[in-house]
Write a structure and sequence with these properties.
The structure is a single chain. Helix 2 packs parallel to helix 5. The chain is globular and about 50 Å long. By secondary structure, the protein is mainly α. The longest helix has 21 residues. It has six helices and two strands. It starts with a helix and ends with a helix.
């Protein structure tokens, strides 16, 4: 998904134009769990301070709020092993919330337990 491009585009287009783009973004977002059920990397960016919360704060468009609600729904449906490893500040700088080795171990344990059930 191209949220970084939408963030830039929002500076130069009308709300109506952004709404059309966000409808397409939302359709793609809703399909994401079908092909990428543990899409934590994309979700962390979307929900970070430089993602949709930034666009909501800056522009206040309801289409951004709608997309964030959908992202949060999908994020909350993911297993805990994929959540809260990192985020981004308003400038897009990575913020590690968890040691990368700990994050890797959590995900490995998740897949090991999932494989042992099959």
């Amino acid at each position: 998904m191209k949220l970084k491009a939408i963030r830039g585009l929002a500076n130069y287009t009308t709300e109506t134009e952004i709404e059309q783009i966000m409808e397409h973004f939302l359709k793609l977002l809703m399909k994401r769990p079908e092909n990428t059920p543990y899409n934590y990397q994309e979700y962390e960016f979307i929900r970070s301070a430089c993602g949709l919360p930034y666009l909501i704060k800056k522009n206040g468009y309801s289409c951004f709020e709608k997309a964030l609600r959908q992202e949060e729904k999908q994020y909350n449906e993911m297993p805990e092993a994929f959540k809260g490893h990192y985020s981004f500040d308003e400038d897009g700088n990575l913020i590690e919330l968890r040691n990368p080795n700990e994050a890797k171990e959590m995900m490995n344990n998740f897949f090991a337990s999932k494989n042992s059930r099959n």
